[in-house]
Amino acid sequence: MSSPILPFTEANTKRVSALLRRSLRLAWDHTTKFQAYRTATIQIRQQFESNRDVNDPQQLQDIIEKTEAKLYEWRNPDPVIPPSRPGGTKYERNLKLPAEPVVPGDW
């Protein structure tokens, strides 16, 4: 568990921004229809905005821990992976041939 981060600091902004990005990616993994995704993003943003003015570091820590637990609970076992990314269907499909001979020896 990390130490409490004070509200309205750069570290807190980065941490909350990372949580928001993870939430949005998770919403995209659960649906590929844009209208449903857009509705989910609006709801996620409203949840983040409702906790925008939290001043107590302990309360902020509790909210962040609950958010991380919710993200872990809602993670998708089969996330959307772009084809060219590691784990995608086209990743390393056409590898370059090595410069040295493939089969050693003098044939």
UniProtKB/TrEMBL annotation:
Keywords: Acetylation, Electron transport, Membrane, Mitochondrion, Mitochondrion inner membrane, Phosphoprotein, Respiratory chain, Transport. It comes from the Eukaryota. It is a peripheral membrane protein. InterPro entries: Complex1_LYR_dom, Complex1_LYR_NDUFB9_LYRM3, NDUFB9. The keyword Mitochondrion applies. Residues 75-107 are annotated as: Disordered. Its main location: mitochondrion. GO terms for biological process: mitochondrial electron transport, NADH to ubiquinone. One of its GO terms (cellular component) is mitochondrial inner membrane. It is found in: Mitochondrion inner membrane. Pfam families: Complex1_LYR. Transmembrane segments: none annotated. Residues 15-71 form the Complex 1 LYR protein domain. Mammalian complex I is composed of 45 different subunits. Accessory subunit of the mitochondrial membrane respiratory chain NADH dehydrogenase (Complex I), that is believed to be not involved in catalysis. Complex I functions in the transfer of electrons from NADH to the respiratory chain. The immediate electron acceptor for the enzyme is believed to be ubiquinone. Belongs to the complex I LYR family. This is NADH dehydrogenase [ubiquinone] 1 beta subcomplex subunit 9. It comes from Spathaspora passalidarum (strain NRRL Y-27907 / 11-Y1).
